[in-house]
Design goal:
Layout: H1 15-20, E1 28-29, E2 35-36, H2 40-47, E3 51-52, E4 60-61, E5 76-77, H3 89-103, H4 125-139, H5 154-161, E6 176-178, H6 187-196, E7 205-209, H7 214-222, E8 227-230, H8 235-252
Helix pairs in contact: 3-4, 5-6
Length: 261
């Protein structure tokens, strides 16, 4: 008989699979010289120092020169790319539904199907907002007949419309869809700026917001809004509202001729 031999076996698995097979997880040495195991805290520590990969310009990897003591060295962020124009309404609705799920219920951690398994960090607040904006952009397109641009707050909205700074080459919009609940400068301030600017005043403005206050409705129309729509509470109705809005304003309504800029 051959003598028993000690065989060393190394399995390279993600943490969720390792946990499923009850395998121990190895700690790895990071750039600071500390051995760190993969955990929510150690991966969160690594996120702030990440840089976009030069190879694909999509994933974000931990920087080799980063010396954050508690950072797990193999932390990686991978982004999914989705089309925002040139697709059917049915496909757009499915993509938006998936993005909405990713940013909401898909962030619940657990071992059930559709939950975020152990070893995967939930998206940051900024990433969730970015994902929901992508869902809105997908929904707000119809067979590629128009293009949607979005900004994060009221100050950015005014800069975009006035084509200032990084927005110097931005296209002049045919329609502005405006939320009242914006950071830095609220929707009413943005609306006031639009209607006070002769170069912007003719652009139709649709208020699309969660506010049901009659005072907000009255104030918006008094300030020159062309339409006031309340955001529906579920995705199906949200899709229908966005599609109807786009079809009416960009399909049926006669808009002022765009002046040369």
């Amino acid at each position: 008989m051959r003598p028993a031999q000690l065989i060393a076996l190394i399995l390279i698995l993600d943490q969720a699979d390792a946990a499923a097979y009850q395998l121990p997880t190895a700690s790895l040495e990071n750039a600071a010289g500390k051995y760190v195991a993969p955990a929510n805290a150690s991966m969160t520590a690594a996120v702030g120092t990440m840089k976009t990969s030069a190879a694909n310009h999509i994933t974000e990897d931990t920087s080799e020169g980063s010396k954050v003591e508690d950072a797990y060295p193999l932390t990686m962020v991978v982004y999914a790319m989705v089309p925002t124009a040139g697709i059917s309404r049915q496909k757009a609705a499915k993509i938006a539904q998936w993005l909405d799920y990713v940013a909401t219920s898909g962030q619940d951690q657990g071992a059930q199907a559709g939950q975020l398994p152990s070893g995967y960090l939930p998206l940051t607040t900024a990433m969730r907002e970015q994902t929901l904006r992508a869902a809105s952009e997908v929904l707000a397109q119809s067979e590629g007949h128009f293009h949607v641009n979005s900004v994060n707050d009221g100050v950015e909205a005014i800069s975009y419309l006035r084509r200032e700074g990084k927005y110097a080459r931005a296209p002049v919009p045919d329609l502005v869809v405006l939320d009242l609940n914006l950071p830095r400068k609220d929707g009413c301030e943005v609306l006031s700026n639009i209607k006070a600017d002769p170069s912007l005043a003719k652009i139709p403005v649709v208020i699309f917001t969660s506010s049901e206050a009659n005072s907000d409705v009255a104030r918006s129309y008094k300030m020159g809004a062309n339409c006031y729509l309340r955001k529906p509470g579920n995705l199906t109705e949200f899709v229908a509202a966005v599609q109807s809005m786009a079809e009416f304003w960009l399909g049926f309504a006669s808009l002022p001729n765009r002046e040369k800029q």
